[in-house]
Amino acid sequence: MSEPRQITDSETNPLLKAWVTPFATPPFDEIEPEHFLPAFEQAFADHSAEIAAITSDPAAVDFANTITALERSGKLLSKVASVFYDLVSAHSNPAILEIDKEVSLRMARHWNPIMMNAVLFGRIAQLHENRAKLDLSPEQLRLLERTYTRFHRAGAGLSDEAKTRMAEINERLAQLGTSFSHHLLGDEQDWVMELGEADRQGLPESFVASAKAAAEERGMEGKAIVTLSRSSVEQFLKSSARRDLREKAYKAFTARGDNGNANDNNGTIVEVLKLREESAKLLGYPTFAAYRLEDSMAKTPDAVRSLLERVWKPARARALADRDDMQALIAEEGGNFKLAPWDWRFYAEKLRLQRANFDDSAIKPYLSLDNMIAAAFDCATRLFGVTFDERKDVPVWHPDVRVWEMKGPDGKHKALFYGDYFARPSKRSGAWMTSLRDQQKLDGEVAPLVLNICNFAKGAGGEPSLLSPDDARTLFHEFGHGLHGMLSNVTYPSLSGTSVFTDFVELPSQLYEHWQERPEVLQKFARHYQTGEPLPDGLLQRFLAARKFNQGFATVEFVSSALIDLEFHTQPAAAAQDVRAFERRELEKIGMPEEIALRHRPTQFGHIFTGDHYAAGYYSYMWSEVMDADAFGAFEEAGDIFDPAVAKRLHDDIYSSGGSLDPEAAYEAFRGRPPEPDALLRRRGLLDDAKAA
């Protein structure tokens, strides 16, 4: 492949000149791959000069010339990197992915000497040691503590020899994380399963329509395909009457990154674990998990294991009981085969229909994407007084991307919200929130640019996209993260929005899911996409009654993944030399039902291997769920899910405070007490199983 032409002129490179777009948003329609490397070069140089100015400042060390100056540094780098990584994840191409390999290494080489700069750390440590005498505001004190912790944990206090080795490790981990991500995307792009007329037995019309749209997206007009997008595969496994095709789709989905081809991730995992273990020991920790969890709400691997095991036992018991009922259902139908993992979702739907007279396909026509977006916005309006107006004048990276302006209760501009909802080959799988610009007030009000990226199936031929209940929940989940970014009200960029502990960051998102499944919301927004008729009351009641169905399965597939993550990072790295054998051994140890797969098998576990944000931290979703289940109880106790007084506390203590408060203090300020652990089991319908266990 020829090298992309590089454009260095700040007058012509759109990444280097002032953005004269609405709200100074990135001019995506002008940005080409060849703009990035020169822009990164300039950004690295600018940032290095800013750091040098701080370390060489002859004036006495103070908060302003060290911590505040650090907060002001790196603006161009943040600007360029946010645009670049949005495209890498949401709309890549071969040129972008090639640049990503170089940028990931250059990024590590840029940050290593900053985070391990002895002079800079000396200034920070001096301020930290004397913090009680500095007359700092609570937010400034929190920023100083977090800055000190960040540099200390990066190795700034190590010997020169250890720093050199840590820098080498960081560089290699950056390369490996990029490789893992590219391999996963490669396997996902390379596989499709075409569905002929005879292959569509049991599939609802909405699925076939989205399968046709997916084919069209890949230049296969007139055909229908299953892709390795989770929303495609899981819906196919629920609905397809073709057991042979379910097996084929399931095996392809669970084998991503584990096919012995150029995209195989097994070797990558082995090396990542060895390097993480070495880095933890350089910093004085026995394991990477011990290092990672010290700076979290959980604090220790034992605390994480205790939570996961408390949930595992009742969930496994429930799943095994459901398995036996599904096996009986197979026998009733005359089947003489043993329930397999590719059968679970299909027979779970039949069992749910039998028990609760409900299946997902009945409600999907009432869950159009546009209506669920409107529902998410309306809940935010009723809770926080914010409003949303669609903007057509903001440049976007793909024609499917939509943009809304969020205004505060005072009618003033507060944020832009970008929604990129549909699966496509250029987008990595999953759903996530990120930002192009974070809120801050250090040098005047800076309004955030917040993104939600999803992988929903697109409707074909002008038909709307119809969501499953899981999809609708995902939309609310990511919008909860989005609100955390958009409602942020802090001074310093390092404390903005979602800059909180990983096991706290899922609280605003998972809490927001509760509103999606409330009758008050569904009665207003769940309307048939063809007739506009509201969701019939009988169907609504059956849906609400069926919500806790199959929770044994859902909990088992999650908790097993979280336990595998914990074991990868607590056991010696040598124990995982053979990744498949390690996986088998750990699943046998916990008694994993063979009919259920991990939600994320190791070779596709992007949460923990494309970077270290969730490494030894996948448990965070469940840690946060203890809080979110308990937190929603505050609204239920008030007798109004939009109670103004509770909503104000939620806004002030959780959504707008970013990282400016200690998370435990933030939660207790909102709720008036620590979270009640049984709330999680109660929400999942597993409390009786837990008591029996």
UniProtKB/TrEMBL annotation:
Q: Which UniProt keywords apply?
A: Hydrolase, Metal-binding, Metalloprotease, Protease, Zinc
**UniProt remark on cofactor binding:** Binds 1 zinc ion.
**Hydrolase keyword on record:** yes
The coenzyme or cofactor needed here is: Zn(2+)
Q: Which GO terms describe its molecular function?
A: hydrolase activity
Membrane-spanning residues where?
none
On the tree of life, the source organism's domain of life is: Bacteria
Report the residue ranges that make up the Peptidase M3A/M3B catalytic domain in this protein.
236-685
Q: What is its EC number?
A: 3.4.24.-
Carries keyword Lipid metabolism?
A: no
Q: Which family does it belong to?
A: Belongs to the peptidase M3 family.
Its name, as the record gives it, is: M3 family metallopeptidase
Q: Which organism is it from?
A: Bradyrhizobium symbiodeficiens
Output the lineage of the source organism. Bacteria, Pseudomonadati, Pseudomonadota, Alphaproteobacteria, Hyphomicrobiales
